[in-house]
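Chapter summary example.
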Amino acid sequence: MTMNDAYIDPVLLNELKKKIKVDELEAQVELFLKTVKNPIKLFSEWRVAINEFLGIVERVVVTIEAMQVEFSKMLAGGKEKMKLAAQFMDELIRFPFFLELVDDKIFYIVISLIVGMKNKVEGHKWNIK
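The structure predicted for these 129 residues follows.
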């Protein structure tokens, strides 16, 4: 599945920004980026940063899943949801230049991992609050 096949309406991206409350994620993003920008960190600091990153991605994925009911015509399937999540993450997190070259692949892998874990734990019908 490639994300490039899917078209994402800007309305969806703006709605996701409103629902996710980007300002609440800024502290998590800052902690994560502080570690990424200084790769010579202790293992424990990397573990915390990676957990923050996974938490951010999970929050985005769950919010998009909840939006599917309201925007079912624009979020018809996995490609659209994956692309919306990746676009949002790309705008939210500005990696150092050497990682910006592959950030789409990083987002794809992490989003797929989160979706796979949630499907394994909760099945394909997630308990969305």
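To summarize the output: Residues 9-122 form one domain.
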